[in-house]
Amino acid sequence: MTELVHLEVADDVATITLDSERNRNALSKQLVSELSAQLAAADADPGARAILVRSAGRVFCSGADLSEAAEGSMVEGAKGLIALQRQIVTAAKPVVVELAGPVRAGGLGIVGAADLVIAAESVTFALTEVRLALAPAVISATLLPRLTDRAASDLFLTARTFDAAEAAAIGLVTRVVPDAELQAEVARALGELVKGYPQGLRETKKLLNQDVVARLDALGPALAELSGELFGSDEARAAMTAFLNRRK
User: Alpha carbon 25 to chain centroid distance?
Assistant: First the structure.
């Protein structure tokens, strides 16, 4: 089986790269499982003080793997995404997300869980769930604490595409830079982070994320069940089938 998520450790940084170009880094069972394993390895590696999550190819993440969703229950997949978000939030090391390409639907859960998110100006975002008879249930656990109530209502209900500048204005991403400056800005941010002592970084993350962790623990199981029910509904299956047929 071809590896979809790669890990490299150098210069105090563990770099995790999503590399499933075939389905635009969709959150397949394999990708989520490998990402979780690589995050655990990165967090445990004494040679790293910070973790970078990035993507190969032109898309950071296209959301749920609809081919898998159309074939069976998504309850376990939803539980896996809750666990993945919690893993990012509770990692002892700061997690930085580099966005060089679009992010859709479930992929925004990774963005919401990260400590720092640096995006290129050309990146676009969309929470497209309502157009597939779904709801952004599982990822709401990390997104709602980041967004204003009005922004969440707008983006969750309209499913419209929005740009990186708006994402920064509403608190979804940390900074936006010209595309040509993305790697340099990410390197600068990581350079600042790795100056911190592990204990300081770990305990500061706990202070910052305690409310999000509590939210994930309190609401996670119910959100996963809701997501599974929606994916399994006749309305959603018809919508997903129509979407997949349009892509052929």
Answer: 11
Q: How many C-beta neighbours within 10 Å does residue 40 have?
A: 12
pLDDT in tens, 83-117: 999 999 999 999 999 999 999 999 999 999 999 99
Sign (positive or negative) of CA dihedral 170, 171, 175, 180:
negative
Return the bridge partners of 61, or none: 103
- 0.85 surpassed by pTM: yes
Name, in order, each residue with C-beta under 8 angstroms of 198's C-beta and a sequence gap of 6 or more: 49, 92, 93
Query: What is the model's pLDDT at position 93?
Result: 98
E strand or H helix that includes residue 242 = helix 234-247
Q: Is 179 helix (H, G, I), strand (E, B) or coil?
A: helix
Give the contacts of 164 (CB within 8 A, at least 6 positions apart).
99, 119, 120, 121, 122, 123, 124, 125, 173, 176
Residue with tokens 């990402």: 35
Report d(CA 228, CA 219) in Å as an integer.
14
What phi, psi does 221 have (nearest 5°)?
Answer: -60, -45
CA nearest 53: which of 189, 169, 179?
A: 189
